[in-house]
Design a protein that fits this description.
Layout: H1 3-20, H2 23-41, E1 51-55, E2 62-65, E3 81-84, H3 99-111, E4 117-121, H4 124-130, H5 141-144, E5 151-153, H6 164-172, E6 177-180, E7 184-189, H7 192-214, H8 224-235, H9 238-241, H10 244-256
Parallel strand pairs: 5-6
Antiparallel strand pairs: 1-2, 1-4, 2-3, 4-7, 6-7
């Protein structure tokens, strides 16, 4: 899209979208826009590529996703694009989505109605671990929450083929985390906060593993019982955290780049 036309569309959206959507959808838009900005803050972006998708509250087949061509630092609540379960545009103002990007997301949204937010990255550390035969190792506390709770999907090329969707879902299984071999990372959650938290710690676990293995020193592997105990502890931690981590991250964005809310 021509830069002047793009800016006009974005300005029009800033002025009108909040008035056209429900309060619940606007809150979802703010949360998702915050997640995109946090990706920039924590260096988990890949130019204009990758996606984070979120089911619109009250709908089983309408989703929000980033407009193709915008950097994550440009994403805001009003310029998120609405699509249906197959990635078809539901807005007609010229903003587009990358069809290839929604192939992975739509597969999971169709199969797992308990997961409202799907988050996919191509980070350096994530791709590196995805290319290691043993995958993610339980060598750090950050990795323990994923112990026996990660699916692995073999690389089949750029995710353009719809027949790959069945295998993606099968490889994810009951988990909320998928490592796409030679490709990247994927997390999903009941909401944005859950998907972001999983990705944040999965990314750190990958970085720690690369640091630990780069020295050539022998790794310390905790016993299975300890790893499983830690994973179960993490699974029950939300009863204590109560979303305070997400609230703190939103406060940081409000101080540093409050335009994500516009």
């Amino acid at each position: 899209m021509d830069p002047k036309k793009l800016e006009a569309v974005l300005e029009q959206r800033r002025a009108t979208v909040r008035e056209r959507v429900s309060p619940q959808e606007w809150q979802a838009r703010e949360d998702l826009a915050a997640c995109y900005r946090l990706c920039v803050h924590y260096r988990m972006t890949d130019m204009i590529y990758n996606h984070i998708s979120l089911k619109i509250p009250g709908s089983d087949d309408h989703f929000l996703i980033n407009a193709f061509g915008l950097l994550y630092e440009e994403v805001s609540a009003s310029n998120l694009v609405k699509v249906d379960i197959d990635g078809n545009l539901l807005d007609d103002d010229g903003l587009e989505v990358n069809p290839a990007g929604f192939v992975i997301h739509s597969a999971i949204h169709k199969a797992r109605h308990d997961l409202s937010c799907v988050f996919h990255t191509h980070t350096r550390a994530g791709v590196a671990i995805s290319a290691q035969e043993r995958g993610l190792l339980p060598i750090s506390q950050h990795a323990m929450r994923f112990y026996n709770r990660v699916g692995y999907h073999g690389y089949e090329g750029i995710a353009l083929d719809l027949d790959e969707q069945q295998r993606l879902v099968q490889d994810l299984g009951p988990h909320d985390v998928l490592i796409l071999r030679n490709h990247g990372l994927l997390t999903a959650g009941a909401g944005v906060r859950e998907a972001f938290e999983l990705m944040y710690y999965l990314e750190l676990a990958c970085q720690i593993q690369l640091d630990a293995t780069s020295s050539g020193s022998q790794l310390v592997m905790p016993p299975h019982e300890v790893c499983e105990h830690a994973a179960q502890q993490f699974a029950g931690s939300n009863d204590f955290i109560l979303g305070r981590d997400w609230a703190a991250l939103r406060r940081m964005l409000d101080r540093k780049e409050p335009d994500y809310r516009t």
